[in-house]
Structure formats: structure tokens, C-alpha cells
UniProtKB/TrEMBL annotation:
The keyword Repeat applies. WD repeats lie at residues 424-467, 569-600, 887-919. PANTHER family: TOPLESS-RELATED PROTEIN 1, TOPLESS-RELATED PROTEIN 1-RELATED. One of its GO terms (biological process) is primary shoot apical meristem specification. Residues 34-92 form the CTLH domain. Residues 1081-1101 have a biased composition (Polar residues). Residues 243-273, 1068-1101 are annotated as: Disordered. This is CTLH domain-containing protein. Keywords: Repeat, Repressor, WD repeat.
Amino acid sequence: MSSLSRELVFLILQFLDEEKFKETVHKLEQESGFFFNMKYFEDEVHNGNWDEVEKYLSGFTKVDDNRYSMKIFFEIRKQKYLEALDKHDRSKAVDILVKDLKVFATFNEELFKEITQLLTLENFRENEQLSKYGDTKLRTLINQSLNWQHQLCKNPRPNPDIKTLFVDHSCGQPNGARAPSPANNPLLGSLPKAGGFPPLGAHGPFQPTPAPVPIPLAGWMSNATTVTHPAVSEGGAIGLGGPSITAALKHPRTPPSNPSVEYPSGDSDHVSKRTRPMGLSTEVNLPVNILPVTFPGHSHGQALNAPDDLPKNVARTLNQGSSPMSMDFHPVQQTVLLVGTNVGDIGLWEVGSRERLVLRNFKVWDLNQCSMPLQAALVKDPGVSVNRVIWSPDGSLFGVAYSRHIVQIYSYHGGDDIRQHLEIDAHVGGVNDLAFSHPNKQLCVITCGDDKTIKVWDAATGTKQYTFEGHEAPVYSVCPHYKENIQFIFSTALDGKIKAWLYDNLGSRVDYDAPGRWCTTMAYSADGTRLFSCGTSKDGESYIVEWNESEGAVKRTYQGFRKRSFGVVQFDTTKNRFLAAGDDFSIKFWDMDNVQLLTTVDADGGLPASPRIRFNKDGTLLAVSANENGIKILGNPDGVRLLRTFENLSYDASRTSEVVTKPAMNPISVAAAAATSAGLADRNASAVAISGMNGDARNLGDVKPRITEESNDKSKIWKLTEINEPSQCRSLRLPENMRVTKISRLIYTNSGNAILALASNAIHLLWKWQRNDRNSISKATASVSPQLWQPTSGILMTNDVTDTSPEEAVPCFALSKNDSYVMSASGGKISLFNMMTFKTMTTFMPPPPAATFLAFHPQDNNIIAIGMDDSTIQIYNVRVDEVKSKLKGHSKRITGLAFSHVLNVLVSSGADAQVCVWNSDGWEKQKSRFLQLPAGRTPSSQSDTRVQFHQDQTHFLVVHETQLAIFETTKLECVKQWVPRDSAAPISHATFSCDSQLVYASFLDATVCVFSAANLRLRCRINPSVYLPANVSSNVQPLVIAAHPQEPNQFALGLSDGAVHVFEPLESDGKWGVPPPVENGSASSVPATQVGNSSSDQAQR
């Protein structure tokens, strides 16, 4: 098949995957043999769909291809055979034996005879090899595999240090020399390499994505009988007890930061070493025993050194004054910690500076509004404890659930500014849990209590919307979530029952028993794809389990708890990788993919028997309750660096004042507060997308933990950081292309390892950073020069142009989320290019009118917003080749488009200096506003206005040659503005850093300025002498600026002479300057500043 045909198949696969044609996409994968979807294969294996497993596998390898394919097919058919015997379906078992298993008789006749004899047994478990069918498969497999690795050592030690199954270990020799690799061990001979699987993941553009879990409630509705798959026996050579299929095919998954997901091929050494079939006649017969040791370092997850990623070093010790009962980190300001205590106090801490910002004692805000039972209870016993504190998804609100009837909701405005928002007399008795959610795009508060009910309240008004009744015991916890547009709530009660509710009045959809049958909490992994619960029984038995949502059954049970826990164990999840729980005076960690305990941390001692724990959103910090009213903050290396920034610095209230959305409770802002699914805010928060200036959509899952806005010591005299010499920062001019005149558009790829530019002559340039000794992770950097990349065909990505000069056209482009294709126009038709081959996949929409700006819809890559030079915006569906809507509201060409997936709006800007907000559901115009241009400044007739959303998705940056401005979307109000002096050069372009904490701006005099985004105050200026040689014409200007998608302090400039420069601060500095002091202690009212040529104060650029 030609390479073009393969490209087409991959595009079709991507389309089918995005449109969720699940059966069709897997059918095409199997029939083409181009892409082996390991996630789908594993799911089918775990679900016991053996016929589908074999059918899918047959598209990639056949039984007789090699000994490893033979082993895999043998395992599949053996499982089918044993399940038929287990169900006493003899006729089916005979059929499988004759049709499926007989083929293996020619390779191992004794094995086939042994399998046949199982038919004569009333219960095949009478066979010693199968006595443990259905029992402890995972541990048996791991021990067998580890033991096998160990026996291949030349000098096996009695207590081996084995970290992982994925790399064959070898025990060190006494003198420190390494034993030879088992693959080349002269005693065994050279092991032949396996074949059958083609190298996968290198062909793009189809990037494998985890298959969406089916609607979770579907499998929980009825008591589905789950198939117990046979465990492998502990020994013997007949082959009934060899490693199972999943064990044979397990592979280290590529970390999410790697854009190319590479599964191991059948030719790779580690596959051939791991998948030796036990019992086939061609094998060396080694005795297999169960090692009586556990291997805490082993992880089935990503091939990383897991313990180094865990926050396990004590970085801060705080004293709350009363015993912490519940804690939660702010979802945006990740060093701000909310605490609720056993005497009803709430505290707010900036853990970096160790400063307690707020301490509030419990009091009823309006006793007259309280029910008589509550008033009577408070008179009888005024003691109140906090059961739960939690932030709303965007951090603008937080809720407190008390042990007496009441829930209090505060609004948070940054620093120490918290205000009373709502007080709800929610339940009779204690309120045991509290969560935020947003069904129907409306922020809600969910509570549960001793009165056996769950209630849903409007977060804006406190109006009760639903009451769910059906539990027969006090409700202990709630966990709201959504999947495939289905919004639901899990709840657990003290009788161990788990129920699930939709937002209606039709009762519970689920009735299952939680392990432990007493106090249970539930939580999803951060990406929302995996469900876990943690429970403690009345006898002190504790459990953490992962659930198979489609069946309502326990998928795996994690081991390592104390036999009898002292109190109720709390747990948390982080990074889609780790689980943690407070047990036995310590914190215990697990890899989500491994039931064995990963590691245990005692936090230098002083912990209670069952400490409360809470990760911050990035998983770099972990708050742990300690004895004597203490709180310990544990950090990994990134977390420790984050905290160190605040060492000995007083907390600056401006740090959060402008970043946090203030809860103006209208329909849009309520939706804004619902930035993510909010069962457990940081657990369920999905990665936020940033709509870029060039029409791209960013996924911030890989953005490095960052300091949102460093505070500064006000006792020091602040001075603007001026960079005048090349030695004062790191800068790199990218390799030249002589065919290019000026750079019109510039963007980093989403993976962060390449830069794409569109020149004014309609040619695209792509620079790629390759992995090497100086750049081990192949990310874009100013320290290593990239390659100006072209495919072997030598073709260029060149846009369609009209008869007029392309220099007069308005170029635009937008990059797909997986970097596999780019949509681009330079005055002619819009072109779709394959980023791997540079080939034009299609062209569409010939002018007039010509496209002037492109933006992908954040939820649907098939929908594109196209700004036109006739001032309209066309909403175009690529799949059906149809314009769905045409939006009219501007009077000149469109120069900027940005989507907010939180508010469900599209913001547009034009050369008319007007900004419009459109509803992205029905495409109605909601608001519009003209920019307030500075007096005496007359912009050019073709002056662009650009827009880009802040990370919070509710504020956006407006860039015009006369100003920078931050707008609040729901009211379309300008909350910040920065204006250059009359004599200063116009602004050519600007963009947020990837974490939205900085704004990078370029000027037509070749100056680059770095601003603090929270208040648009200048913190660093880079002068032209840094990157332009003295002999360069003063006519060279920066036209476009782009920010790295994961490195907040890296940006790139595109110049009018066709050059592209990458900038980073010196490693010793780590950042661009320091933020200026805040006038009058607040940044909320910084006036518009003007700029001139002096650097003496903040008012100048």
C-alpha cells in the first residue's frame, strides 16, 4: 500500500475515533493492520471477550508466525476452554478443544493430552496446576515473572532488588561488575526475537487516545454477573499455568508529554525476554516457584521512577490551633490551602510563606433563618465540627459542611479577602459531605447528611433543586461526575450501600455494596476515566479498590493496609497515576496499575493513626494532618521549588486578586465557575485549554508546575529588569530559509518540540528539536539549535494564493490538537496539510471572501470558526463541507477568534477595534464593545485586534497597537488596561504565557516587554541589542510572538526579515524579572499606565 494510502487510513481512523464510531474504528485497525490499539485489546481481555480478542489480534499476527504469537493464541483459547469447563458446558469445551486447541498438539503433544484429560474431571480444579483457578491471578503472574527474571541472572542474590518487569534486572556481582544480559547469556544461547507486531505509533497522525468508558450507569443498573477469569497456577510445565495474555503484552506506556505514543514492537528485546511460554517443548525448562517477597518498587504504570514523583519530603510544618478535619488546595493558586477543624474553625494558608491569611471561628450568620431543630441543638450543645471543606472548580467559591445542619459558602477574592455568600440549613443532623457540580451548565452545591438524603442547591441563590431519597442509613459521601454528557452523582451510606443518581426525581439507578460496608468515599482519577473508592469497616478493615464502571464490579483491590486501622482512612488521587491514603501513622502510596504497596512515608513522625491527606492539583504538594493541631506539607522536587519561591517573603494579596473569577452570579458566570467537573475539585479537573492568538487550542496537562505570581519583599526598592546584552538571557536564532521574506504567523506545536511559522509568501516553515545528549526530552529550547525540517520528498507546505500579491493577503492558520495537521490560508483557498508529509489533504472555501482568521472548536475538531475579510464569521463543518452559521456584527475584517469551553462562547475581534461575544450553542450575539482608544492615538486603517483567553477561561487578553487590555467575558468589561506613551512604538503582537501569569508583548521598535498578567504591570524589558546585530537595518521588526505550551518562561519572535528567535531567561535567573510592588497593597485598581523611553519607574516602557 502506498504511503499516501496509509496516510489516508490514519486520517480515517482519527476521524472515526473523534466521532466515536467505536466498532468501526477497531474493525479498520484490525483489517488494515496499521495500528494496534493496546488499550482496546486490554479492555477486551479484562472483559473476557475472547472471540473478539482473537479476531482483533489476527489482523496483526497469526498463530504460526512465531513462538510468541503461538503462546498468545494458546492463552486465549485456553481461557475459552477453561471457562466452558467451569460452566459445565462440555459440548462447547469439546468444540474448542477440537477446533482451537488441537493445532498446538503438533508442538507439544503431552500438553494437549493434559488439556484433553480435563474433560474427564468433574471439576477441573482437581488438576493440581489449576487448583487456584479464579484466585489471585495478578500476584501470581508478577511473582512468576519476577522469579523468571531472577533465575536468568548469572549471579542471583538471595534477596534481589527488582524494580520493574519492563527492564530485565541482573544482580550485581560482588566486585560491582554487571552480569551479562540474559539475551546474550552464553549458558542459554541467544534468544530468538519475536515477530508479528509492526512498530506502532510512529506513523501518525492518528494518535491513540484512551477509549471512552461506556456510560457508567449502564452496567450498574442491573446486577451483572461478572466472569471470573482463571488465575495462573503456581508451577508445573504443562503450560496451563503460563503467564496470561495481558501479562505477556503489558508494556510501559509513554508518558502523556510524549506526542508519539510508541507501543513496543514484537521485535523489541524486552518483549522477547518477558514472554517466554512456559511449557512449550522449545523452551528451556526452568523450575518456577513463588518468591516469598514483595517488590514495592514495581509499577505497571508509566516507565518512570515513581517514588521520585511523589511528594514525600516534609517542606513545611504549620499549626492550625485546632485539629484539622478536612483540607483542600486552591485549584489555581496551588500553594493556598483551605482547612476546616474539629471545633468549626476554617483557616486559609499561604503554605509557601507559612502565613495564615484567614482564621474564622464558627458562627451562624443568620440565626433567625435557621430551623427550630438547629436552634435547639445549638443551645443544647454549641460544639460544631467541620466535616468537609472544598473549593469550587475555578476557586471563586468554597464550601464548608458542618456537623450540625449547616453548609456555608464563601466567595474568595484573593489574598485574605473572603466574603459570606450563602448559608444553607441543609440537613437534619450532620452534613457529612459537600461537592460542587454543574449540571445543565449551572453551578450547584451537592450535600448529604445524617437524614439519609442527598440535596442539590443552586450555588448562586441557595435554592434547593433536588432531594434524593432512598438510602436507609446516614449518607456519608457524594461524588458527582459526568461521562458522555451524562451527569450523575455517586453516594455512599453508613450501611455500605453505593447508589447513583441522575439529576431527576426518578430514584437511584444503582444499589451495590462497598467493600468494608461502612465509611466509604469515592473519587475519580484526574482525567475522569477511572473510579476508585476507599472504605473502612466497623472492625477497622480498610480497602482501596478500583471499579469497573461498565459492570459495577470491583476491578482490583489494593493491598498494604494495617490489619486493623485506627479510625476511618482517607485517600486521594493524583496525576492519573498514584493513590495515597493515611493509615498506620503514615501515608501509603500505590501506583494505580499495581495492587502492591508502592512506598510508605512517615513524614518524619508525629502523624495521627489515620491522617487526613490532600494533594494539590499538580500533585507536587501533599497536605497531611499531624498531631498537636499540626499540618505537614510534603513536596516532590517541583513542589519544594514552588514553596522555596515564597521563602521569607510576605504574602502579597495581589497574587490572586485578578486571576480568580469573582462570582457575579448571572448565567454565564455560574457556568464560568464550573470550569471542570467538581466532585472533588482537583481530582476531577480536566486539563484546561487555552485558545491561542493563532487559533490553536492548548491542553495544559503538561504545563510545568508554576509560580502564579511571585510575591516580593516590599522593603526592597523595586527596579525594572532591563536586558541589554545577549549574555543577560538565552536567545537563539533559528536556522534560515532564504526563500522567506517575513514571518506573518508563529506557533509552537502542542507537544512543545517544534515551532511552525507561516511566511508572507504563503510558505510554512517547521523547526523540530531532536532528542540528543544536550536535549534529552526533545523540547524546544534556546540552548540547542533545532532542525529546519522537511519530509524526504522535499516538498513545502505552500498555501493557495490569488492573482494579487500574497504579501497583501492576511495569512492565518490553526493547528490540530495532536499536531497532525494544520489548516492555513494566505488570501486564497483554505488548505489542510498533513504535518508529517507536508502534503495538501484538501482545499476549500475559495475567495471571495478570503479567510483572515481560523480557530478550531475546542470540543469538536470538525467545527471551525473562520473569520473573513468581509467582516463575517462562518461556522464551518469540515466533515459535511457545510457552513452551519454566518455571524454578522463587525464592520471590518476579522482579526481574532477565541473559544471558551467553560462559558461556551466565541469571542471575536476585528480591524474595526470591536470585540463581540457569541454563544457557541446557538451562535447568537450576546454582547459587543468597541475598544476605548487612547486620546490622540489614531490607529492605522488595517490595525489588528487580537483576543486570547486566560487560563481561567473567563477573562481574555485584547491586543491592539494602542493597548493591552484584560476583559471579563460575562460583562464584557475591561478590568485592566496598559497604554504606551504617545511617543512609544506601537504594539505589534502579544500573548499570554502558557500558565497565563505573564504577557509577552512585541513592539515595532524591536523591543520586547514582559508583563505580570494579574495587573498588566511591566516587569522586564528586552532591548533590540540583545538579538539584533548592530548592522541590521532598523526596519527589522518583530511581527508575531508565541509562547511555549509548557514552559512559562519561553517565547519565540517572528521578524519582518524572515528570522525566528527563541528566548529564555538565564538558568540562574529562572524567570523574567520580578513583579513590581503593588500600590496601596492592592492590584485591583491599578490605573492605565503610559510608557515612554525612560526606565526610571513603572510608567515607562
